[in-house]
Design goal:
The chain has a single domain, classed as TIM Barrel, CATH 3.20.20. The chain is 41% helix and 12% strand. The longest helix is centred in the C-terminal third of the chain and has 17 residues.
Length: 331
């Protein structure tokens, strides 16, 4: 496992981040702890959770497991989504942030959070209020670094402007959805993150399992797959995922799998790891063999031609105004 600086910060994180959304939801505490052991044994030191995962249970399971190794781990969690039915149990107001941080600290069994992330934009709260609360938490020693998640390009730019002009603590990371079959951040968000010096820690790096190679054209999803067991809205998501561009991408992943002897998932993760601005994809697992396979994305590289093939086949459609701006640069 190699280590990288998180954005423009000095902290070093493993090139694979362990996501814990399945903890307490799809797998029990004992199995969750076994996956953490596997990750740590492979050299991983970066673990991501959120208060909203299983209504705090994921944080509790994670905290109990890493208690004796706390100082060796870069621990990330998030705040934003509802944690109760009250009007102040949601958002990034000063009240909710401070109460949310204190609750996460209790569940995690720690006195500090390494990376505290805004889980999504909150248009109802002034940025100055949010940043004042987050800056206080950093200066009190309860939080070490700040991160964003699920922000648009203009939201990143606006946030950075407020931070820089008002002297608040700066953000070091962005957690976006990003994979070869979900590249919409390449239109603008990725450039905004690069300009701001944010290290990207992508979630959904395997496209909800699409890039693992278990799906095939004109075939129903396997019975044991998430899609096959999906609720109605997830089935609609599958309909949007199973388009020709994505099947063509999967074809090239398969070709490179044959060339390298690496699995589909390892190639998909490796492509992300070699994209500018990406620090560490977040991998979540329900089974040990899934995690073991994902960890195999570390420690090797795709060559330039393989990266080009994957990048070109998965390129998102040209749309206005980005295509206009690109063409204007050629004049």
């Amino acid at each position: 496992m190699e280590y990288r600086r998180l954005g423009r910060s000095g902290v070093m994180v493993s090139e694979i981040c362990l996501g814990t959304m399945t903890f307490g939801r799809e797998i029990d505490e004992s199995y969750s702890h076994a996956l953490v052991d596997m990750f740590l044994d492979a050299g991983g030191n970066f673990i991501d959770t959120a208060d909203v995962y299983s209504a705090g249970v994921s944080e509790e399971i994670t905290g109990r497991k890493i208690k004796d190794k706390r100082d060796d781990i870069v621990l990330a969690t998030k705040v934003r989504f509802p944690m109760g039915d009250g009007p102040n149990d949601v958002g990034v107001s000063r009240k909710h942030i401070i109460r949310g941080c204190e609750a996460s600290l209790r569940r995690l069994g720690t006195d500090y959070i390494d990376l505290y992330q805004i889980h999504a934009w909150d248009g109802a709260t002034p940025l100055e209020e949010t940043m004042g609360a987050l800056t206080d938490l950093v200066r009190q020693g309860k939080v070490r670094y700040l991160g964003l998640s699920n922000f648009s390009g203009w939201q990143i730019a606006q946030t950075v402007h407020v931070v820089d002009t008002r002297g608040y603590e700066r953000f070091v990371s962005l957690q976006p959805q990003y994979s070869m079959v979900e590249r919409n951040i390449d239109y603008e968000v990725r450039d905004a993150a690069l300009e701001a010096g944010l290290g990207m820690i992508p979630w959904g790096p395997l496209g909800s399992g699409f890039l693992t190679g278990k799906y095939r054209r004109d075939q129903k999803p396997p019975e044991d797959s998430r899609i096959a067991k999906a609720e109605e809205w997830q089935a609609e998501h599958w309909h949007k995922r199973a388009v020709e561009r994505n099947w063509a991408t999967l074809d090239v992943v398969g070709e490179i799998s044959e060339e390298t002897g690496k699995s589909y998932a390892q190639i998909a993760l490796r492509w992300l790891l070699q994209r500018d601005g990406v620090t560490a994809p977040i991998v979540g697992a329900r089974k040990a063999d899934q995690l073991q396979d994902n960890l195999g994305a570390a420690g090797w590289k795709l060559d330039d031609k393989q990266m080009q093939r994957l990048t070109e086949v998965s390129e998102p459609p040209e749309i206005y105004p980005y295509n206009f701006i690109t063409n204007a640069q050629r004049v």
